[in-house]
Amino acid sequence: MGFDYAIVHVKYTIPPAVLLTLLYRPLFTKLDVFKVSFLVTVAVLATLPWDSYLIRNRIWSYPSHVIAGPTFLDIPLEEVFFFFIQTYNTSLLYLILSKPTFQPVFLRPARSSQMPWKYHRIAGQLFLLGATLWGWRRVHENGCGTYTGLIVVWAAPIVLLQWTLAYQFILGLPLTNTILPIALPTIYLWAVDTLALRRGTWVISADTKYGVNLWDGLEIEEALFFLVTNTLIVFGQLAFDNALAVLYTFPTLFPNPPNLPSPATLMRALLTSPTKYDGARLAGLQDAVQRLKRKSRSFYLASSTFPGPLRTDLLLLYSFCRVADDLVDNAATAEEAKEWISKLHEFLDNVYSDSKSSRSSMATIHAYFPPNTRSALVQLPVAKLPRQPLQDLLRGFEMDLAFNNLSPINSEGDLRLYSERVAGTVAQMCIQLVFHLYPSTLTPSKQRKVVDAGNRMGIALQYVNIARDISVDAHIGRVYLPLDWLREHGLTYKEALEHPSDARMERLRTRLLENAFSLYEGARAAIESLPVEARGPIRVAVESYMEIGRTLRKEGYTVKAGRATVPKWRRLMVAWKTLNRRTD
Ligand SMILES: CC(C)=CCC/C(C)=C/CC/C(C)=C/CC/C(C)=C/[C@@H]1[C@@H](COP(=O)(O)OP(=O)(O)O)[C@]1(C)CC/C=C(\C)CC/C=C(\C)CCC=C(C)C
Q1: Which pLDDT does position 13 carry in this prediction?
Q2: Residue 569, pLDDT score
Q3: CB of 426 closer than 6 angstroms to any ligand 1 atom
Q4: Is the CB of 453 under 6 A from ligand 1?
Q5: How many A from CA of 515 to the centre of ligand 1?
Q6: What is the pTM of this model?
Q7: For ligand 1, atom 24, which residue shows the shortest CA distance?
Q8: Which ligand 1 atom is nearest residue 396's CA?
Q9: How far apart are CA 86 and CA 94, in angstroms?
Q10: How far is the CA of 23 from the centre of ligand 1 (A)?
Q11: I need a labelling partner for 196 at 20 to 30 A (CA). Which of 30, 46, 380, 583 fits?
Q12: Burial class of residue 236 in the structure, from the number of CB atoms within 10 Å of its CB (0-12 exposed, 13-18 middle, 19+ buried)
């Protein structure tokens, strides 16, 4: 009896598990727990009979002085624990590395005659079939290729199934989602194995191995075993995510998908032919991701912390708000801007009208809006959003048009109304989307209170936005600071437009930021009443933006294109701290 194998765990497998858990803990959703538990269960169940066979046939063995003693199906418990912890560690690494990627946009729609990567699929299948036959022969020969053959015969059919179901996803995703989560734990386990074998923790029988080392101390069979098992785990995660992407991306194929889908539902999603994928929806999502990436670094970072289906809806909402705002802002004349707003109102009339068909809405979109904006309108998740905040948002844009050598913002009340319309509404819609996806246990009146707090938070964010953009806005003939504030500081509207960096304007910026932070302080506790899946991500979205306000309050901040910017490393720090923090 000994503890060498247990010490390998204490030294090499448990510390990464703790580290990865701490890193991913704030983002760990119920769906992640379900996914990891499912894979761990499958991995342990699939490995036990195989490993038991290997041990009983003395392909490998454990000297009695290195294991504690208890076994299950002749497998030392330390080894059973290894299957569990390896699957857990590799799965968590995959979850962390794949988090920044919005995976649904890597689904490929296909026409029946033209399956993307058809030949890659066939080549992969032939290779894995060939490998299985090759392994089978090595096992039958019962010579030095036996152990390799047993690894291949056991793993290749499972990889073949995973490949057949998810090859498009596997081939399309960035390498950070595929090769990297396989390579990192494999190399790590190769290093651990080198140390363990050198110390004789486990021994491979000389008769059933090739006797070839990848490097001194690492047998080729062991190297293959870790590579193959990590591939099984990551491909398992990818197949699972492929199913989730199909399930949550195509409401016409899967209306109201459950938050925790059953294996049967997942299989149905995986078996859905790519010819049925809605190409327009995928294009809309791709446009939305690119739009967010280009236009808002704060919300782009925050978006990756949201769970999949909520991320989809928020991206589509962002895309609509951005397109509408840009159409109005980039219009050459006030007349043109007004026309865009009335077209957008007509769009809302159409999509919220019971009597108009979706075909007539599409016709309006095609007749009125430029091609590069259409996907944002078509994909707006209207079924999950009330009409009122969208309409108020357009009324906020209308207020922008009233700037004409004059300002429509006379008082602090006007500023608040404007900010409520352009940003309070956005916050209300974000919360509606959260409640739609993750039904809350709060009473309707408490839910309304949360929406009200969200509204105030939206106003706070808009104040920060205005404080950041004083110079940029002055260049386009707008000063959003209330006229009575300007008067209190002896400034006329014209002076404020011409001298946005005047010391008095700086004092007004400080006053606006104070208001922003006081609204923020009053509203932030309500985030903790949101469904648990949304709390951390909403905190990140809010804090990443408020960090711009904190930067503006410090002296000597960096300005890019006339705007204060927060360096990437600081945005990441804020996101990380925020995810781990709780407001009281
Ligand atoms: C994570 C993610 C994808 C979030 C998307 C949020 C979203 C839908 C944002 C829409 C943004 C937008 C283009 C709106 C049009 C009107 C506008 C310009 C509003 C200002 C945004 C600033 O964006 P940006 O800096 O890119 O704008 P400009 O370059 O100046 O054009 C706003 C400041 C509004 C943003 C407000 C929110 C995102 C609301 C945040 C509040 C919550 C999520 C609720 C908090 C909940 C509680 C309970 C307190």
Answers
A1: 95
A2: 82
A3: yes
A4: yes
A5: 18
A6: 0.90
A7: 296
A8: 16
A9: 12
A10: 27
A11: 46
A12: buried
Give 165-216 pLDDT, tens digit per residue: 999 999 999 999 999 999 999 999 999 989 876 676 777 888 888 989 899 8
Residue 66 Cβ contacting ligand 1 at under 6 Å: no
Are 412 and 508 spatial neighbours (Cβ–Cβ below 8 Å)? no
Q: What is the mean pLDDT of the chain?
A: 91
**pLDDT for residue 308 is more than 90:** no
The closest residue, in CA terms, to atom 35 on ligand 1 is 423
Q: Decide if pLDDT at 584 tops 50.
A: no
Locus of tokens 């050459």: 332
pLDDT, tens digit, 9 for 90 and up, residues 561-578: 667 677 788 888 888 888
- The predicted pLDDT at position 583 comes to 47
Identify the pLDDT of residue 101.
96
Q: What are phi and psi of 305, to 5 degrees?
A: -90, -10
Centre of ligand 1 from the C-alpha of residue 423, in Å: 6
The yes-or-no verdict on residue 92 having pLDDT over 70 is: yes
Q: How far is the CA of 364 from the centre of ligand 1 (A)?
A: 27
What is the Cα–Cα distance from 42 to 44, expressed in whole angstroms? 6
* 324 close to ligand 1 (CB < 6 Angstrom): no
> How high is the pLDDT of residue 454?
98
Q: Please, are residues 255 and 340 in contact by the beta-carbon 8 Å criterion?
A: no
Name residue 230's beta-bridge partners: none
Cα(427) to ligand 1 centroid in Å equals: 7
- Domains, the chain, ordered by start: 4-115+169-276 (no CATH), 280-580 (1.10.600.10)
Nearest atom (ligand 1) to Cα of 303? 1
Residue among 328, 500, 311 at smallest CA distance from 398: 328
Compute the distance from residue 245 Cα to the ligand 1 centre, in Å: 25
